[in-house]
Each structure stands twice: as C-alpha cells, then as structure tokens.
Design goal:
The protein has 224 residues and is mainly alpha-helical. The protein folds into two domains: 146 residues, no CATH class; 52 residues, no CATH class. Helices cover 42% and strands 8% of the residues. The protein is built from eight helices and six strands, in the order E-E-H-H-H-H-H-H-H-E-E-E-E-H. It has a two-stranded antiparallel sheet with strand order 1-2. A hairpin with a 7-residue loop joins strand 1 and strand 2. The radius of gyration is 19 Å and the shape is globular. It starts with a strand and ends in a 19-residue tail after the last helix.
C-alpha cells in the first residue's frame, strides 16, 4: 500500500486514493467553466455583476493581471495540454495535436485526462504531481472569480526569478498584497521595489526558459 500522492493521508494500491481521484475528475470537468468564468475579468476592473468595484492598490503593477496569464498559452490550456502530452507519452501514444480555439483545446485536454484517470490513479507515478497542479490551478482561478479574502491571499504574479549563489532560481510564488509598495518573496527574502517591476515582469515571463544570472535588486551579490 502507498500513501496517496495528493492528500498524503489515505492509503492506496496505486498513486491516488479514490477520494482524491474523484476530486481531480470533478476539477477537470470544471476547467472549461473556470476558463469561461474568467472572461468577465478581461475588462479593466472587471467583476461579476453586483460584485462591486474592485479596490485599487497604491501602485498598479505593470505586470499582466493573473486572469490574462490563466487565459493565456501558459495558463489553463497550457497546464492541461502539458499533462495530457506527458500522460500520452508515458502510455506510448502519439503526441496530441493542439489546434483550434483555446476553449475547444481545454475541453479536449480535460476530457482526455478524465478518460484516463483510472490509469493515472492506479499506474502513473506522476499522478500526485498532476493532481496537485490541477488543484492549484483551480484555486488560482477561484482566487479571482470568487476570492475568499484578497487581502490575505494577495495577487499572484508568478515565480520569483532571484538566483542564489549556486545559480539556482528561487521559484517560489510571488504575490502582491494591497497597500504594499514593495514585492517581497516570502521564501528567499528578495525585494522588488516599484522601479524594478518592469524588469521583474520580463524575468517572470522568461522564468524556466533562460539561464538568468540576475541579481536581487539593491544587492551586490546573488540572493543567498
């Protein structure tokens, strides 16, 4: 018996317990609806009818809103298609073709993953990581569409691009909290004042695609 790769509490003969497999199936089923729900937030200050006007932060960030990232190539569609591609590769199947409207691609990718969820839960060593990313993806959307407490959660910007002395990128999630004029990584402590936000956006956009040796702002050496 193994521990479930998602909840790490229940035991299972495979990699996901029945409860977590069911929860993952439901999240996959909701992905097209979550993508559609974000459309209401594409306009500046977009909110659902009757939800009121969003409160402005002291200094608006020159960084794309999380809704744009989630609806963009690396957002919902990118996550689903990447996992579908990995799943099919490990099953010895051909690479799936990603064409058409984003809405249709999300439906196809989510459906393909759902149809193979029994195999994923019982036979795929990556099942835990897969289920965790699907869960986190849903939470990211929910934080925009139906935030529980925006002041507590902050606005997700991307991953911290700071590099330590060994050349390792921090990679922790960066968040901007209402009223804060400096973005600070809670993991490595690197701070990004407003003057660096344009450069920060560039680093976040290229995180994982370049071997950056950028230094922490206002520091003379890489973040320790």
């Amino acid at each position: 018996m193994n521990q479930c790769g998602l909840c790490e509490q229940n035991e299972t003969d495979g990699y996901l317990c029945p409860g977590c497999a069911l929860a993952t199936a439901r999240r996959l089923d909701r992905m097209p609806k979550l993508y559609a729900g974000l459309a209401a937030f594409l306009q500046p200050g977009g909110r659902r009818d009757g939800a009121g006007r969003p409160r402005a932060v002291d200094a608006p960030l020159p960084i794309p809103e999380p809704v744009l990232s989630l609806r963009g190539p690396g957002g919902i569609v990118g996550v689903l298609e990447d996992w579908r591609s990995a799943m099919q590769a490990d099953r010895g199947w051909t690479e799936p073709v990603a064409t058409g409207l984003v809405e249709d691609r999300i439906i196809r990718a989510a459906r393909a993953l759902s149809m193979n969820l029994d195999w994923i839960a019982t036979s795929w060593p990556l099942a835990g990581a897969f289920a965790e990313e699907i869960r986190d993806l849903e939470r990211d959307v929910a934080s925009i569409v139906n935030p529980a407490d925006r002041a507590e959660r902050g606005t997700r910007l991307g991953t911290c691009p700071a590099v330590d002395g060994s050349g390792t990128i921090c990679g922790a999630v960066l968040r901007h909290f209402p009223g804060e004029r400096t973005i600070t990584c809670k993991w490595c402590g690197c701070s990004f004042p407003p003057a660096t936000w344009t450069g920060l956006k560039t680093l976040i956009d290229h995180d994982g695609r370049t071997e950056s040796e950028e230094l922490c702002p206002n520091e003379s050496s890489p973040v320790a």
